[in-house]
Amino acid sequence: MTVFPSDPPQIFQLTETSGAAYRPRWSPDAHFIAWLYYDPDTDAVDFWLTDNLDGSSRPISTGGIEEPGLRSLGWSSDSRFLIYTAAQPDGSERDIYRLEVESGEIVNLTSDCPAWDSDPAWSPDGALIAFVSDRAEDGKGLDDIWVMAPDGTRLRNVTNSSDWEDITPGWSPEGAEIAFYRWSVYASDERGPSGLWVTKLDGSEERLLIQLDVLAPGFFAPAWSPDGRFVAYQFGLPDEADVYVIPAAGGEAINVSNLPGDDYGASWSPDSQSLIFTNSTEDDLRLYLAAPDGTDTRPLLDFSGNGLGEWPPTLPPDSQ
């Protein structure tokens, strides 16, 4: 049985630019869509905002954002802020920045440390930001999962696994757990093996969802289904990765893409019955729909040149 309607979806063009508009992100209240715009005249990337109520669009950053964190761009739960990764002021490493969409004010949340800080993810309730950093006090120089308050204070090291790299945190829907990838060149620490892991916020009850032996698994954060039952993740060699779905409690993983090229960027429907992802090949970029059991995978649109999509949120009836 298919989970998708047979009729083709309606398509509405929201932007018309001379450059590239990409990486849309719905605000939790569905009022706005934030997106990145590359201006060919200035060779710069800035954040833009589309108001879904009146259809207007405007820039919310100016002067160019260096090395924007495309994978980790996300909203706060109150739809006031965007969070992303970009270069440190001196260009040596990366920091995590918070952008207020109304005023355009940008705050560097990790300016306290010269270490690498990246891949921020806002907790579902907006109280915490999970991120990746190599700032561990013992100076191990490898990535850990950290959490902090939305103003950059109350830093806490969640994982500290000696020889292992812990990257790309993804929050569970209730905010009690974080999924992440663990991998290592050395693989000498007893807290392995490489794979997709889950931990509590205090670093306790780490558990392996599935072992992944490729050196560096997906660099897009694992995506929990809204009902908390499944986790979608990317795995495979560069430019040949697939999207898999695995039960959050553990079990057999299912390849839901299995297409030539690179599959990434999974986004779940609000009812957890389907997901979309991007397939990228040398000649094409295309969004696909998939059922979590892998039985119904198909192109979302009947034309190519589309990708990096995100499912819109579902609002309570009294807010629509």
Would you mind describing this structure in some detail?
By secondary structure, the protein is mainly beta. It contains no helices and 24 strands. It has strands at residues 20-26, 32-39, 44-51, 57-59, 74-75, 81-87, 94-100, 106-108, 117-122, 129-133, 144-148, 156-157, 165-171, 177-183, 195-200, 207-211, 223-224, 230-235, 242-247, 254-255, 262-268, 275-280, 285-290, 298-299. The strands form six sheets. Strands 1-2-3-4 form a four-stranded antiparallel sheet, with no helix packed on it. It has a four-stranded antiparallel sheet with strand order 5-6-7-8, with no helix packed on it. A four-stranded antiparallel sheet has the order 9-10-11-12, with no helix packed on it.
Short description:
The chain has strands at residues 20-26, 32-39, 44-51, 57-59, 74-75, 81-87, 94-100, 106-108, 117-122, 129-133, 144-148, 156-157, 165-171, 177-183, 195-200, 207-211, 223-224, 230-235, 242-247, 254-255, 262-268, 275-280, 285-290, 298-299. It has 320 residues and is mostly beta strands.
How does the SSE layout of this entry go?
Elements: E1 20-26, E2 32-39, E3 44-51, E4 57-59, E5 74-75, E6 81-87, E7 94-100, E8 106-108, E9 117-122, E10 129-133, E11 144-148, E12 156-157, E13 165-171, E14 177-183, E15 195-200, E16 207-211, E17 223-224, E18 230-235, E19 242-247, E20 254-255, E21 262-268, E22 275-280, E23 285-290, E24 298-299
Antiparallel strand pairs: 1-2, 2-3, 3-4, 5-6, 6-7, 7-8, 9-10, 10-11, 11-12, 13-14, 14-15, 15-16, 17-18, 18-19, 19-20, 21-22, 22-23, 23-24
